Amino acid sequence: MDWAQTLLSGAIGAIVGSLAAAIYTNSFSRIQEIRRVKLDTLRKLAATRYMLTSGYGDRPDAFLQALNEASIVFQDSPKVLGVLEELHSDVLGGRVNDPILEQHLLKLFQAMFDNLGIDHGNLRDSYITKPFTRRI
After folding, report:
1. Exposed site from 7, 42, 44, 94, fewest CB < 10 Å?
2. Structurally, how many domains does the chain consist of?
């Protein structure tokens, strides 16, 4: 009897431990994938923000795609969604000019950095609002 009880408790412990490890691994993997997608969206916005500068033309398609993606990818962040809502309202209301757009972009990038836990203390605001571009 004693050996059967030991064997049974060992088997139950192994099953419970395996199940807990599988749940933890799946949860951690999901969190990492969400973070990767958020970082990718932030990277797209940063890489294409030059499209908003004068001289590029009227087709900032890649930037707008990334901006639309951000509202879905960062849906768990009230701060990011709040900034996107302000920007959206100002654009639809025709109240966007360069200084207002720069402020929205700055607030958006800072909210995304905060959501991802990225320290942006050493990054000057002008690096976000005045992207590198070539003159056409």
Report:
1. 94
2. 1
Find out whether 81 and 109 touch, Cβ atoms under 8 Å.
no
Q: How far apart are CA 58 and CA 136, in angstroms?
A: 14
On whether residue 14 sits in a domain, the answer given is no
**Does residue 94 lie within any of the structural domains?**
yes
DSSP 54: T
Residues 100-130: tens digit of each pLDDT: 888 888 999 999 999 999 998 888 888 888 8
**Entry pTM:** 0.76
Query: E-assigned strands of the chain?
Result: none
Token pair of 60 as six digits: 């900032």
